[in-house]
Amino acid sequence: MAPITVGAVAAHFGRDVDRAVAKAIGIIEAAARDGVDLLVFPDASLGGYIGDLNAPDTAELPSALDADGPEIAAVIAAAGAMTVCVGYAEASDGLTYNSAICVSGDGVHGSHRKVHQPAGEALAYAAGDSFRAFDSPVGRMGMLIDYDKTFPEAARTIALDGAHIIAALSAWPASVTDRASRLPADRQSRLFDLYDAARAAENQVVLVSSNQTGVMGSLRFLGQAKVVGPGGEILATTRSKGGLATVTLDVEAEITRARRVLDHLGERRSETYVLDPVPVVEQ
């Protein structure tokens, strides 16, 4: 494939769904003028995130939206030739999921429901149960939602399913137990960047990491949207401020170069990654 321009969004999205949709459309239109081919919004862009990870107020949860509802339809209409990943609270069969959907003007290409839940989130959302890659106008890709990227198996599963791009959509806050005076010095800030680089490098894929900014309830979000190359190098970043991190690259060429000598996926020794049963000692 030819080189593509990739963009990762760092921005604040609140509870007002109509305002969030309008803001997303404005960002899509601006990105289109800049020639962006893949645009990744944060988790919970359409309606905001919960305001407390320990005890979320179940009376003040984000509005749950239908995947085939007017809000997603508006994003599809705005996307045109661009591939857009956006996070929202998804209503399905009486449950609410923390979800992401990947669309273009041609319709929906893929979706993901967050699997791994930090403390308290299970009070607000049901958990997803799978990781899958899918085909899109920019190539085969997959999605993770914030805490998912803490677990190497999640990104590895998507990479083994053929994804060359992983979109990691986040509403990732600063530490709630050990607050730092400056966001760059925060423990969660360091982990956020570490996981982005590690998941890209260990799978030798391009990782596009978005994140919320600003404050929601007791949570202060980190920003730090970025594009990471298959060697773990940060190619573009917003740092802790809002903005759009963009880079133009030939994804296939970058991955081919990264895997030319050391091919991490091809050189796995799966049979060695199993713990032997613990022997039972009879008393």
From TrEMBL:
Location of the CN hydrolase domain: 4-251
Lipid biosynthesis found in the keyword field: no
Entry-linked Gene3D superfamilies: Carbon-nitrogen hydrolase
InterPro entries xrefs: Aliph_Amidase/BUP, C-N_Hydrolase, C-N_Hydrolase_sf
Alphabetically ordered keywords of this record: Hydrolase
Annotated PROSITE patterns: CN_HYDROLASE (PS50263)
SUPFAM superfamilies assigned to the protein according to its UniProt record, in alphabetical order: Carbon-nitrogen hydrolase
Protein name in the entry: Apolipoprotein N-acyltransferase
